[in-house]
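Schema walk-through. Below, the input block comes first and the output block second. Nothing else is stored per chain. Lengths vary across the set, and this one has 184 residues.
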Amino acid sequence: MPLIKSKSERAFKKNISAEIHAGKPMKQAVAIAYATQRSAKKKDGGGLYANIHAKQERIKHGSDEHMRKIGSKGAPSKQAFIESAKTAKKKDGGVSLAVGRGEKKPTSQGAGLTAKGRAKYNRETGSHLQAPQAKGSRHDSFCARMKGVVEHASGDAPRAKASLKRWHCKDGGKAKKKYDIKGW
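--- output ---
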């Protein structure tokens, strides 16, 4: 039986039931149901603005719905619009960060964002960027990801190479069991 591709709780429960009846263990059935629910959310675009545009399309094609005014019962609040705007895709390509304003370090100093740049990015996008880490799982993950950026770059990737150096990724980004970070 095919799974229901919906983000509703009812569809989620039916998908779990269908997978259990198909002979899957409970944990696997739940994982499959979650994956199906996530894919349905991705497909619809999710978010406040996507919901508004979807409703406008339904109204345009003849549904009996109507758009509620901000502040009325069932309508999104002003705060909901503020929160949604933080994560909405920017038309101009996102946050503008510059070396001259002290938001990024120049390549000669190791590239990457300064505390001022991280604060600006977090404020404008709702993210939680943090300062470079000397060791640990965040360090290993960053080194591995940035190594991929350097390997797959179409050019020289000087900023990526400088950030690898700044984070002390001595082995080119491969995770190591022991940390040999001297000078920190």
